[in-house]
Structure formats: structure tokens, C-alpha cells
Amino acid sequence: MKFVLLEVAPAKEKWAQSALELYTEKISHFVDFSNLVVGSKSTDRSDANAKREAEAALILKALKPDDWVVLLDERGQSLTSEKWALNLERLQMSGKKRIVWILGGAYGVTDEVKKRANLQFCLSPFVMNHLVARTVLLEQIYRSFMISKNLPYHNA
Q: Which residues pair with 100 in a beta bridge?
């Protein structure tokens, strides 16, 4: 099984790149993990819908028909770390080849992308900066593996 973080090109910050590298290394001990960034055209804030549509086309093009897709959305389902770990265990045993997490752009994603998702998952009721959300997601993926393997990390 392969895990893929599919994201719309975020701003570049040293701390966020360091976090990405750190958690990619940690997660890769458990599963084949990669980060796929799709480009985003700079557009005026007044043209948010056009930007969302362009990003949706790139996101949908990057997905394979048999991918199991998790969309990060502030209105999505909220799970505890323990329940999320159980879900990931089930997914790993499901025979799916790829689980893809989608982090959309600043204006969210289109209904078409939402419909393609198998699960819409909320990291927090807070709206987060893209780089913060990515870091939280990566940490939770890593935490899920630690919980599943009964390794010391998660203190419940």
C-alpha cells in the first residue's frame, strides 16, 4: 500500500519543509509515503471560483480510479486519534493500493472533488493555514501507526 499526500502548492516556509521531511521519514518506516504537489496559478482574490476550478482539475487528474481518497475539510467528520488509527488499520487490510489525502487550496475545493472523496475528515474545528494543517495531518498519520503498533508515543 502507498500513502500519498496530494496538495495544492503551498507557500514555502523552512519550518514547514523541515516538518514535511521529518514526518515523511517517520511515516516511511511503516508504509510507502510520498508528497505530490500540484501547481496553482496565481489569481486575484476576486476570482476564487476560477482558482478552485483550476485546482480541482489538477487534483482530479492526479487521482487514480481505485484510489481511496480522504479530503481534509473543516466540515468533515471528526475522529479521535484512536478511531483514526483503527480506520487506517482497516484500510490497510482492504486491499486498496493507494490512500490519498487531499489538502486543497486557500479557497477550498469544488463539489466534484468532494464527491470523489471516500471520506471528508476534519483535523480541527479551527481553520488552519495550509502548512499548519499539513503538519498536523502528517503527525496524526504517524501517531496512527504508533497507536496501531502499540509503540510508545501516544499517551491516552
A: 4, 69
Domains and CATH numbers, the chain: 6-62+72-148 (3.40.1280.10)
- pLDDT tens readout for residues 31-59: 999 999 998 666 656 788 888 999 999 99
The pLDDT of 101-116, averaged and rounded, is: 94
Please give the single-letter amino acid code of residue 1: M
pTM of the model: 0.90
Distance separating the N- and C-terminal Cα atoms of the chain:
28
Unique residue bearing C-alpha cell 514526518 = 23
Instruction: Note whether 131 and 69 are within 8 A (CB).
Output: no
pLDDT(9) > 90:
no
Classify strands 32-38 and 119-121 as parallel, antiparallel or unpaired.
unpaired
Q: What is the pLDDT of residues 129-140, one digit of tens each?
A: 899 999 999 999
User: Helix, strand, or coil here: 32?
Assistant: strand
Contact 116, 62 (CB under 8 A): no
| Dist CA 7 CA 64 (whole Å) | 15
Three-class secondary structure of residue 68 per DSSP? strand
